[in-house]
Amino acid sequence: MANSFIVSLLLSILYIASASSQSAAPVGSPAGNTTSAQEFIKVSCNVTTDPTICVDSLSPYASSIQESPRRLIFTAVNVSLANIQSTMTLVDNLKKMKGLTFIESGLLSSCAEMFVLGLRDLTTSRGQLDDMYKSKGPDFKQHFEEAKTSIGGAEYNFFFCNYEFDQRKEVVKLRALVIPTVVNVSHILSNTIDLVDKFANATG
Ligand SMILES: *[C@@H]1O[C@H](CO)[C@@H](O)[C@H](O)[C@H]1NC(C)=O
Ligand SMILES: *[C@@H]1O[C@H](CO)[C@@H](O)[C@H](O)[C@H]1NC(C)=O
Ligand SMILES: *[C@@H]1O[C@H](CO)[C@@H](O)[C@H](O)[C@H]1NC(C)=O
Ligand SMILES: *[C@@H]1O[C@H](CO)[C@@H](O)[C@H](O)[C@H]1NC(C)=O
């Protein structure tokens, strides 16, 4: 009797421990504890395509994210927007470089156009996420899908820039200046979709 009680107690502790290690959002830590906010970001980022970039890009905002899935998602979108904008600035500056070939300036212009579309899509997703959090049931689901589609659209534009460079293997130096940042933004956007996918349903 006593033994089976202890066994079932142990089992339920194990169950709780494994459930909480799987749960994405540790709860109950005091607000203002940036150690636990950093931990929350690490655990949440573990579900993303590129956890390293995810943690690097979000941990500067730990004190504002705390342990809120919603703030995590909006911060990820804001960070993505900032990264798109800085990539646009980079490309604008490169376009002013002297001695670009016809092909090089064509690639830069094409990517610049893609980034404008990406920025538009991602900006749209912010409104859709706002709508999502204001709704329930099927409406929630619809805005959720819309937001993911918009962020996916933004990501596609960065893939496309990368693809166009891939078609021009002879463009070597310019590629080295542009593509690492473009790939980075693709990963940041992909991570953002993963976070929306995983945590949009979480409360807080
Ligand atoms: C802050 O969070 C960390 C990780 O969850 C925990 O180890 C630590 O005890 C917390 N500190 C305070 C002051 O609550
Ligand atoms: C991330 O996931 C791996 C594999 O599931 C696990 O070993 C690791 O502890 C996790 N890290 C965090 C910070 O949750
Ligand atoms: C994201 O950016 C918008 C506009 O700049 C701002 O109003 C909002 O508070 C930001 N959200 C987070 C979670 O940082
Ligand atoms: C990628 O993005 C992260 C987070 O914003 C940044 O710290 C890093 O410098 C970026 N790397 C490149 C190659 O752009």
From the structure above, extract its key features:
binds 2-acetamido-2-deoxy-beta-D-glucopyranose; Pectinesterase inhibitor domain-containing protein; disordered N terminus; Invertase/methylesterase_inhib; Pectinesterase_inhib_dom; 204 residues; signal; mainly alpha; 8 helices; 0% strand
Average pLDDT: 87
| Distinct ligand kinds | 2-acetamido-2-deoxy-beta-D-glucopyranose
Based on helices, strands and strand pairing, what is the structural class?
A: mainly alpha
Shape: elongated
Measured between the Cα atoms of the first and last residue, the distance is 41 Å
What's the number of helices?
8
User: Rg, please?
Assistant: 21 Å
- Main beta sheet, described? none
Low-confidence stretches: 1-30
Q: Into which percentage range does the β-strand content fall?
A: under 5%
Number of strands: 0
Order of helices and strands: HHHHHHHH
Question: How helical, in percent, are the residues?
Answer: over 70%
Signal peptide: 1-19
Keywords: Signal
InterPro entries: Invertase/methylesterase_inhib, Pectinesterase_inhib_dom, PME_Inhibitor
Organism: Turnera subulata
